[in-house]
Amino acid sequence: MATRSTDSATSRSSGVLYKLFVGFSVCIAASTYQALQPPPPKLCGSPGGPSITAPRIKLRDGRHLAYKEHGVPRDQAARKIVFVHGSDSCRHDNAFAALLSPDIKEGLGVYMVSFDRPGYGESDANPNRTPKSLALDIEELANQLSLGTKFYIIGYSMGGQATWACLKYIPHRLAGAALVTPVVNYWWKSFPSDISNEAYNLQPRNDQWAVRVAHYAPWLTHWWNSQKWFLGSSVVTRNLGLLSKSDKEILFKIGAAGRPHEGEIRQQGTHETVIRDMIVGFGKWEFDPMELENLFPNKEGSVHLWQGDDDALVPVTLQRYVAKKLPWVHYHEIPGAGHMFPLFPGMVDNIVKTLLTNEEVKN
After folding, report:
1. Low-confidence residues of the chain, pLDDT below 70?
2. Where are the domains of the chain?
3. What's the CA gap between 89 and 155, in Å, rounded?
4. Residues 6+ apart with CB under 8 A from 359
5. How far apart are CA 175 and CA 329, in angstroms?
6. Among 43, 64, 81, 336, which has the minimal tally of Cβ within 10 Å of its Cβ?
7. What is residue 131's predicted lDDT score, i.e. its pLDDT?
8. What pLDDT is attached to residue 125?
9. Mean pLDDT of the chain
10. How many CB atoms sit inside 10 A of residue 342's CB?
């Protein structure tokens, strides 16, 4: 009898321990799953969400895209440009409109529209964002604003992903394109492994890991950049330490007053802005830009790529390789320049006039 009682007690004890283990495992799994899930974006115009202050268009899938117009009136413009902002920026961050000289703006009849990429500012997020969806958003923006059968595009930094996509998916709509220090994906298949690995290893270790996670485990990217155990992406944390000397000098001159709208940039959340940029920009692309064919074989338009040789964010070695693979793209390398070289005096005029006329400004 004593033996049976002992066996029964042991069995009950084992059952309790098993249930505790299962319960503990479920709690850990649920907690981990919750930690991996990004919070939903704070939709503009929703109860408790950010206000809507900008003009917006409604896209084919019901999302809204906020935009801002610059330059001569749209209906009087001879040349129309769509500007695509970089990471951690919005429609207000358009140096190409702010710094364009009146001589070029009025003389060439330049109209420009900048827009909040999905999730930024007052544009609705697109959790299914891809380079192709960005190109189609731009085409729809051009259609709804009646920009005509052809327009120009300028993409800065991470805005390059949309610009390459426009060259791929809507080439028939482009009169010309300028890629200004466009972010490069280390996994584009045309890159030789030694060149891409060398450039990849130039990044700080935390950024190496951040882009690696975005490429191989996009579902982990939100957690990776929100946990407190180790450093995530320098862009997500706004760590300016990795910028080049010239970029730091530019930021010092601009000061805090340079971006009074900074609070608006991520007002819908971090995930659908800078983190989504990483997932799309460094993810698996459906095409390789270095396999694109010449859009303007008859020289009716042109494509330009501008890069500083001291850019600490986008390796110049990769940009040189892109230019080598695409000889029909006009490559302009700026000595001693970092990522923010468009803010150099006269540089905006040079980029815009070269795009619109194929003639560089003579300083």
Report:
1. 1-36, 256-257, 359-363
2. 56-357
3. 12
4. 353
5. 14
6. 336
7. 97
8. 97
9. 90
10. 22
Separation CA 354–CA 82 (nearest Å): 16
Q: How far apart are alpha carbons 26 and 20 in whole angstroms?
A: 10
The 3-class secondary structure across the chain, one letter per residue, is CHHHHHHHHHHHHHHHHHHHHHHHHHHHHHHHHHHHCCCCCCCCCCCCCCCCCCCEEECCCCCEEEEEEEECCHHHCCEEEEEECCCCCCCCCCHHHHCCCHHHHHHCCEEEEEECCCCCCCCCCCCCCCHHHHHHHHHHHHHHCCCCCCEEEEEEHHHHHHHHHHHHHCHHHEEEEEEECCCCCCCCCCCCHHHHHHHHCCCCHHHHHHHHHHHHCHHHHHHHCCCCCCCCCCCCCCCHHHCCHHHHHHHHHHCHHHCCCHHHHCCCCCHHHHHHHHHHHCCCCCCCHHHCCCCCCCCCCCEEEEEECCCCCCCHHHHHHHHHHCCCCEEEEECCCCCCHHHCCCHHHHHHHHHHHCCCCCC
Q: What is the CATH number of domain 56-357?
A: 3.40.50.1820
The alpha carbon torsion through 189, 194, 199, 205 (nearest 10 deg) reads 100
Q: Cα(262)–Cα(121) distance, rounded to whole angstroms?
A: 9
pLDDT at 27: 39
String of b and e for 253-279 (b: at least 16 CB within 10 Å)?
Answer: eeeeeebeebebbbbbbbbbbbbbbbb
pTM of the predicted model as reported, rounded to 2 decimal places: 0.89
**Residue 62 half-sphere exposure toward CB, CA atoms < 13 A:** 1
Query: Residue 74 has what pLDDT?
Result: 96
Q: What is the pLDDT of residue 26?
A: 41
For residues 346-358, b (16+ Cβ closer than 10 Å) or e, as one string?
A: ebbbbbbbbbbee
Tokens of 266: 């991520």
In this predicted structure, what is the pLDDT of residue 362?
A: 52
pLDDT of residue 361: 57
